[in-house]
Amino acid sequence: MSPQSSFAHSWFAQLNTRLRTANPYAVDAALATLVLFAVSLQWLFPDEGDDRLTWQGWLLGAATAVPLVWRRRAPFGTACAVSAATPAMAVYHAPPPDVVYGGLVVLYTMGAQGRPWQRRVMLAGWVLGVTLTMHHKEDTRPFEYAFHLMTILCAYALGMLTRVQRAYTAELEDRARRLERERAADTARATAQERARIARDMHDILAHAVSLMVVQAEAGPVVVRSDPARAEAAFDAIAGAGRDAMGQLRRILGVLKEEQRQGTSPQPGVTALPELLRQVGETTGLRVELSTSGEPCPLPPDTGIAVYRVVQEALTNTVKHAYASSATVRLDWTERELTLTVTDDGRGPSAPGDGGHGLIGIRERAAACGGTAEAGRGPDGGFRVVVRLPVAADRQAALG
């Protein structure tokens, strides 16, 4: 593109933008003034032809221009007024219109803004009117028919193109707004889900660590005089549980801050369960057994984390509320799902219900991974938590 054409394109784009943002009534008034000036050229610059000039003829010409001021407020009424004044000017013949400037404007307006029946009536009326006027005009040449018919048809077609462009632009803008709303909704939904996940992680970490520390803190003063070594071990267990909780909280906060620090260990999963059970047994005295059946299958990372957190929360509830002496964690693997069962020999639930925040968190974790969770009294007493989670191959179908 040459510099001249680039400049012309930029100038036209700026002019189009200004016209779109300008006051529509001011634009219509300027357009009516321009049409009136074009109609008045024969009086401003008269020639020596046969057409006579009268002030009545000028008034009829003005009647084809002045109504254009209201072309947007009353498009069909304006078109009717200009359509009546134009043939009257042609019949009066003082002088006849060489170019129907006002008619071109109203046909464009009808094409761009009129209702379907208004557009059809106005176009048919102008085609018929131009044809009859040219037929009764003296010394009419064949090219004049084509000139007038082509001008009105082009004006109408330009208005229709403008209508289509506006509809297309409005559809694009509406689609962009819908996409923006959907994107905002997806972002808000993802943010809420991530906050819920982080809240569950922090609850599980803190509840587990604090429960272990409370158990050891209660046992420490009892044996501090009779068994100092055991008291020292209890305090070491309190410190170890606190350090472990702080380490896991740092990992979560590091994800929140989007920090990629070297040396940050990954979130715990199924392989970390033996260490968790060992820690619970050593710090609380609860006998915890782990059993597995079936062939282990690969799990998505968040599902593996969910397994660890569910076991952690279930054992925390056992330590805090069940007054149990032993617990069992069982993993049953199949080709389609993993069934996780945590049972204890404690006193079981005191009342039916959905449980506290811990059990709610277990259900939310299972649902987030496409699985289900159940909690309640075990078949032999005590309390039982059963979570079914799909393996990697079936997770998409479970979520769908």
TrEMBL record:
UniProt xrefs under SMART domains: HATPase_c
EC number: 2.7.13.3
Start and end residues of each Histidine kinase/HSP90-like ATPase domain: 302-393
Transmembrane regions: 25-45
Reactions performed catalytically: ATP + protein L-histidine = ADP + protein N-phospho-L-histidine
Pfam families (alphabetical): DUF7134 (PF23539), HATPase_c (PF02518), HisKA_3 (PF07730)
Protein name in the entry: histidine kinase
